Predict the structure of Acetyl-CoA C-acetyltransferase.
Amino acid sequence: MTEVYVAGVGEIPCKPSYTQDFREMLFKAFKNCLEDSESEVSEIDAVVASGLDFFEGISITDSYTPDQVGGRLKFNTLVSNDSLNAFIHAYMLIKTGWFKNVLVTAYAKSSNILNYGEILLNTWDPHLIRPLLIHHFSIAALDAQAFLSRRNGEPRDLSIVAAKNIRNALRNSAAAYGADTDIEKIESEEFVSEPLRRSHVARLCDYASVVLLSSDNRSAKAVVKGVGFAHGSHSSDLSERVFGKFAWVRPAVSKALPGSLRRVVEFVEVSESFASTELMVLDELGVYDGDVLKGVRGGDFMFDGALPVNPSGGCIGMGYPLNAAGLQRVVQAVKLLRMGRWSGCLVASVDGEVVDGGSVVVLSAG
């Protein structure tokens, strides 16, 4: 069976706003990826782009992608989903044996969006839920409260997660929102929707990243050990939604991480649009031996803990780049593996801020 390797990664740092067009942002990330992989444009066989027309304000978003990333007149396709799902599509293309080098691209130009909350209303049922004009913070707060109630948690647990990620981001030159904060500072902040406080919510950012997957191990930076994707409960109709629980995680993990691979996971990267998102994903992953909330309070998920979670700073520390969040996590995971401190990791990404669906990828050092 064909092995799949991460041959190179490229990104531009997260910022609240870039003056450049998204095409220029993507081109810079692509150049960085080419340099990292020591590859030529001519070696790229296909491009898998991640994009959502609602976020871009234009139709057929991926038609603007190939020229910037060496994909002109080559196979290219769009995954209208989180970019970790696009990563899995590229992985499967290589597994067919028809492609040797496949590029995965993702970007976010959040600073161009004036009505983000209104755009997210399209997540919901158009007849029953959307007319209520519910803000997504309220839905996320219901999820957070349901999780804390089910697991006997406290709102302070969310502040522990947020403080950890914001401080971790200080080590990451690509992060936009790293700061020397602490739990008490965050606990003194206002609620955006109880129990979520301001720092419990990942701030939007502009960002671009490119990852080159290959069947050739000559320049391998990491090995893709497994992938998984799943849907959970029906998300667009609140009457059928299971609050406080991600039903997608366990099916996705079972595909990506068979029991024999559990020992490979030495840290976890999660795209957490809210502090509660990180805890809800961790609670279902099954890679931590013990109660997740006790682990949070005991420091097991800190940078130097038993199982570091989001040592890169996560989306709360780096910035939340919309559908590019999954690929952002892959790039950070590969960079961390190359430090030599860890030899394997798990990357998990939710399909959206208030969606019960997502992807899981397991990586080991190349």
Remarks:
- The longest strand covers residues 5-15.
- The longest helix spans residues 22-37.
